[in-house]
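Please decode residue identities from the backbone states below.
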């Protein structure tokens, strides 16, 4: 039977500047848990404040960036590179979130390039995939997930990183920020399908070690049921990660 390694990851999106970040992390109380990690993906300008608070209080919280570019440097106005992130102590990155795809023209090709370069720089990547409501209604969920992963699974550097430096977050787009959450059955079916895709390319120990998180209106009221699913290894949480009470409640469920 597969032993889960749980990750509770919060995506703050464009919320909590440096002052609010410091206030949040100065107030939080977190006790370490066996076989579980807490991570926060915060805005670029809040990374330093988050790191300082975590280090000053010795909090068991990892801090990550919400995106990373696919070049080391150059004429890419508004972008941040992996070496820049590492210089300030950030070694975690979120890549391919649906909001990046929807609003900023992120494609499977650019997601691949960002992922490959981040891995080459020694960063750990949480790769986001998921279908829209129209795609689910057209019974294309599995086809879309496979389309979003096919190039990743064909890249040797990505294959070798699964289970250590590369993990997945399944976020059905129709459930992000809508208050609608996939049922445990829907979520488990998608997670099992994703793990099955990995199993076609990777040895079982690597497949089992790869975390697949669920994201989409995760809250203290539904997280426990989702975690009971055999292929769900935690949550990528949006709104509920911004509030201290709901975030600590989620950690308490682990």
């Amino acid at each position: 039977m597969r032993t889960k390694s749980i990750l509770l990851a919060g995506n703050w999106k464009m919320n909590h500047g440096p002052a609010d970040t410091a206030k949040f992390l100065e107030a939080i109380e977190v006790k370490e848990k066996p076989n579980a990690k807490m991570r926060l993906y915060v805005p670029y300008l809040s990374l330093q404040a988050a790191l300082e608070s975590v280090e000053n209080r010795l909090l068991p919280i990892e801090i990550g960036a919400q995106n990373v570019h696919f070049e080391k440097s150059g004429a890419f106005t508004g972008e941040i590179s992996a070496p820049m992130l590492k210089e300030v102590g950030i070694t975690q990155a979120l890549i391919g979130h649906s909001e990046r795809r929807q609003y900023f023209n992120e494609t499977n090709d650019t997601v691949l390039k960002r992922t490959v370069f981040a891995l080459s720089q020694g960063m750990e990547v949480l790769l986001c995939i998921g279908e829209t409501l129209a795609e689910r209604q057209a019974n294309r969920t599995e086809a879309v997930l496979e389309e979003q992963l096919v190039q990743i699974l064909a890249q040797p550097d990505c294959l070798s990183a699964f289970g250590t430096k590369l993990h997945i977050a399944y976020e059905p787009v129709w459930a992000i920020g809508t208050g609608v959450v996939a049922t445990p059955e829907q979520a488990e079916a998608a997670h099992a399908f994703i793990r099955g895709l990995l199993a076609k390319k990777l040895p079982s120990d690597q497949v089992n070690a790869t975390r697949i998180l669920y994201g989409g209106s995760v809250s203290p009221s539904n997280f426990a049921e989702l975690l009971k699913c055999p292929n769900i290894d935690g949550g990528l949480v949006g709104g509920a990660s911004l509030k201290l009470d709901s975030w600590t409640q989620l950690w308490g469920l682990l």
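Observation: The radius of gyration is 17 Å.
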